Amino acid sequence: MSGPGDSRNGEPRPDGNAGEIIELSSRRKSPRPAGAIPGDDEPEPDRRASTVALVVALVIVVVGYLLITEIFDNTKIDDCNLAGRKNCVPIEVPAHRSSLPWAAG
Asked: Which run of H or of E encompasses 74?
């Protein structure tokens, strides 16, 4: 379907251009000095977002490690209980009665 401004049907466009090539200007007009690295004149990116992402990733790894360690310890205790053993989790009793918080006095 061709419209009134379509130059494919042989008619000139309303603006008078009959398919001329228009040269576009480039974004950067300033010449680079010899030996300059491309992109060297661009400002340095803000590294705050990268640092925050790295800290979040490290926190996730540490929390994951702690959870896996805790699950592993609980699995060992469950295996001990399921085997019918006693004293799977020894209870630590203080040596002196005065070290108990409610017996102070």
From this structure: helix 48-82
Euclidean distance between CA atoms 105 and 102, whole angstroms: 8
Please answer whether residues 97 and 103 qualify as being in contact, where contact means their C-beta atoms are separated by less than 8 angstroms: yes
CB 97 within 8 A of CB 91: no
Length of the chain: 105
pTM above 0.90, yes or no: no
Structural domain boundaries in the chain: 48-77
Contact 88, 81 (CB under 8 A): yes
What is the full per-residue pLDDT of the chain (105 aa) written as tens digits? 555 555 455 566 666 666 677 777 666 555 556 666 665 566 667 788 899 999 999 999 999 999 999 999 999 999 999 998 888 887 887 777 666 667 655
Are the C-beta atoms of residues 7 and 13 closer than 8 Å to each other?
yes
